Amino acid sequence: MSPYLAAEDLSMFGHDPWWLVVVKAVFCFAFLMVTVLFSIVWERKVVAWMQLRIGPNRHGPWGMLQSLADGVKLMLKEDVIVKRADKVVYVLAPIVAAIPAFMAIAVIPFGPADNEISIFGHRTAMQLTDLPIAMLYILAIASVGIYGIVLAGWSSGSTYPLLGGLRSCAQMISYEIAMGAAFASVFLYSGSMSTSRIVEQQHDRWFILLLPVSFIIYIVTMVGETNRAPFDMPESEGDLVGGFNTEYSSIKFAMFMLAEYVNMVTVSAVSTTLFLGGWRAPWPISGFWAGANHGWWPLLWFVIKVQLLLFFFIWLRGTLPRVRYDQLMKLGWKVLIPVSVVWLMLVATVRALRNEHYGFADIALYAAGGVLTLLVLSFLVDMFREKAKEPERPTAGPAAFDPMAGGYPVPPLPGQTLPPVPRRRSRRERELIVSGGTDTVSDGSTDGKEASDG
């Protein structure tokens, strides 16, 4: 049966008693908090190792309680509200940024829905809940969180936070379009937007193997969505001091940091669910161990995959420098969005041919023909465009260098020379010009002398 014709079966959700729902919700919250506390220490340890430093080593064994000490320190610091801020929005902005970060984990499966576990004598699935449109719910929650950053920058009453908030908004719009196209490719292959069913459809082959381009696009977009290096332009301390959270301190600043790291965990969990088989054990283990995907073991595989993706975040931060803002926008609009749309069309074509019972060889031939046609058309367009530009090229030499063209002095580029500086007149020449010239001076001085003699 085609996956498009399969009905959603989510009957295992919605029947837990209220106290069990509370227990599972508390577990999801605790999972995020513990992972965040560990990730902060791990990030500082890994970056210190990359830079040949020691890293945190004072609080707790091997410095593992450093993030907890940082949280206590931030809560005990003075809570300052700037005078020009819109106080209501200024206080609500960190809450708006933090709460949606925790909500997306509600639909992430930690284990198989049909393999229920026992909690206090009750059988339940290792997932808080699931929806037929669970992935759309995740996209909506991620979009709401950006309002906290934008409102924080606007309500601070300062220029730099406002610029940081606007940057974050533009960055989210640019990268969420490509992220949605990457999700759509997964929807086409799984035939569902339910997270539990998407994991079920990867029982024989993970989607990272079937949709490698979608995985790469999502990896890039999830770094941009979380405002992490090298895409941390909303917090660029080189030109924005601290970005949208410049005017925040104490617990409100801590909530912004918490939202950032929780978002890292969330997008890593989503990537694991969509492309890395979710809670399923890796192939070598699942091949010889039949019980690897039963009981509490799926939770272990899920946590390992999430931690590997978090290490990828840390590795990028310790390796790549921050990009310029124009490069960030160019990558989003001119590279990721066109590639994701073309890839989505290709995936849809392949799925349509498979539904029509075409063989793999025929599909590969059609796909290769389509790619070759696009390459030939692109080459012809570029060739004719260059020919059209040739008559328009000016034949005159390069324009003279103007050091004040931008309104402020700038140094010359290679190949440019400064205009000659006019020679400074001597004091004698300036006196002659002021007095009217040599003849006037001599005549005046002579007349004056003669008049005095007379």
UniProtKB/TrEMBL annotation:
Keywords: Cell membrane, Membrane, NAD, Oxidoreductase, Quinone, Translocase, Transmembrane, Transmembrane helix, Ubiquinone. It comes from the Bacteria. The keyword Transmembrane applies. The keyword Zinc-finger does not apply. It is an enzyme of class 7 (translocase). It is found in: Cell membrane; Membrane. Residues 391-454 are annotated as: Disordered. Its main location: membrane. GO terms for molecular function: NADH dehydrogenase (quinone) (non-electrogenic) activity. This is NADH-quinone oxidoreductase subunit H. It comes from Streptomyces gibsoniae. The gene is nuoH.
